[in-house]
Amino acid sequence: AIVGDRRIDPIRHRELLIRVVASIVHGGQVGRIITGDACGIDAFARRYVRSISTSDPFYDWEATVYCASNERAELLRQEGYDVIRCSDWRRHGKTAGPMRNGRIVKDGDEFVVIDGGGPGSADMVRQITAAGKKLWHFVIDDCPCANASDDEPACERDCSHGIVIHPVDDSEPI
Fold first, then answer.
1. How confident is the model at residue 76 (pLDDT cuts 50, 70, 90)?
2. In this structure, are residues 22 and 44 in contact, taking their beta carbons and an 8 Å threshold?
């Protein structure tokens, strides 16, 4: 499964996200990638699977999208995705997200979580850890000085003034 924060802009971070995901899934025995239906990382995962599997016959991947609404499920089916409806935001309210996450954790074997600090990503990490499943957890750190002018003081965080993805296991940033 590839999941993560809906607030992360997959267009802005495209190259970095491709490096992270490719470093994990390429060369592995991947047949199906599951993800949620949110914007951000979920949308990136759906599109990445579609693009890689159509451009390289070695990667015959499919994407299964875990979805909350009937309307959205139908639209995704029309786009050619396998869809599993697993929660209903209208009926379950804010508990629908953790319900969907639980279903993804139940059905998945290994997980890439690209975390921007949102509650959904934190819930996924908690549920994956509790289930004892394989987890690659990355935190996107958008340095506040990335858009600073040359007249402003240098960043004290040694971040190269940009976006860094930190693996949570304390290995080197990507």
1. confident
2. no
